[in-house]
Specification:
This protein is mostly helical. About 80% of the residues lie in helices and about 0% in strands. The longest helix has 30 residues. The protein is globular.
Length: about 290
């Protein structure tokens, strides 16, 4: 495992707060610095494609994925990611092959994965205690190995967005228009579903199942209010997500706060959303 001490040492310089002297806070900040922009960028398509319910289904599949890993004596993080990717691809395939709406397909799969997870957990009460970590999330427990995996994921997302952002934008506007530009709609939909599933599962570690959808859509929604172009929305969403993550991490560690880090990050992003809505109203665009 690479030694990231030099990178951790930069954190107190960037955020000169007493709480950032602790190594676990430095690791949490680096983890959020990698995860927040990735979630924000993927969240843009979630907002444009109206896929918030999709992310809910993926995040709730974490219970079943972890339970399968614990029962089968496998690494629960690997089974969680693998199961989430399978669920994401299954939803995309069903939606493409059936006449049902996206919401209906997601609703059916959502119910199935939640029921499957509850059924497995209910067989072993000891597993239920381990599930609380995934229900609420805890970015403060992130390890160097997790940060390395996040860096790899961020690199993969960067390549995918760099090569396919405009194509995904066309697909979001109109499938027929995208096909007219010789864009392989199905290929990009499956790739996006798989990558989004992985991002959602990593986000579960940071903010928990209950708030993972908010981590993706709130920065993107606020960015949409502030932007007049697709390019501006891209950069605004990254700025909002990173500043919300940093503010949420620092505030949650203050003695007067001592709140859950994931929830505080989402509240910081929500403040951005309120400000952006006010600006939109003042422009007369609402």
């Amino acid at each position: 495992m690479p030694d990231l001490s030099a990178i951790y040492g930069i954190v107190p310089v960037i955020l000169p707060f007493e709480c950032m002297e602790a190594r676990f806070m430095q690791q949490a900040f680096i983890g959020l610095l990698l995860l927040a922009p990735v979630a924000a960028v993927m969240g843009i398509q979630v907002v444009n494609f109206r896929m918030a319910f999709f992310t809910d289904a993926i995040s709730h599949s974490a219970f079943a994925g972890v339970a399968i890993g614990l029962i089968a004596s496998l690494n629960p993080y690997l089974t969680m990611v693998g199961f989430a990717v399978l669920v994401g691809i299954a939803i995309t395939a069903l939606q493409r092959k059936s006449s049902l709406s996206m919401d209906t397909v997601v609703g059916v799969i959502f119910s199935a994965v939640v029921a499957f997870g509850i059924a497995i957990v209910s067989r072993d009460r000891s597993i239920a205690r381990d599930m609380q970590l995934f229900l609420y999330g805890d970015i403060l427990t992130i390890s160097t190995a997790d940060i390395v995996m996040l860096a790899v994921l961020a690199l993969v997302i960067l390549v995918f967005i760099g090569l396919g952002y405009n194509r995904m934008f066309y697909i979001g506007l109109n499938h027929s228009l995208a096909r007219a530009h010789r864009i392989k709609v199905a290929l990009y939909q499956y790739m996006y579903a798989a990558l989004l599933s992985v991002v959602v599962i990593f986000s579960v570690r940071a903010v928990g199942v209950l708030l993972v959808t908010a981590l993706l859509i709130v920065p993107a929604a606020a960015a949409r209010n502030l932007s007049r172009t697709a390019g501006a929305m891209f950069w605004w969403s990254i700025l909002i997500s990173v500043t919300s993550a940093a503010a949420g991490l620092v505030i949650s560690a203050q003695e007067w706060a001592y709140t859950a880090t994931g929830a505080t990050i989402i509240l910081a992003a929500f403040i951005w959303f309120v400000i952006s809505s006010f600006i939109t109203y003042m422009r007369g665009e609402s």
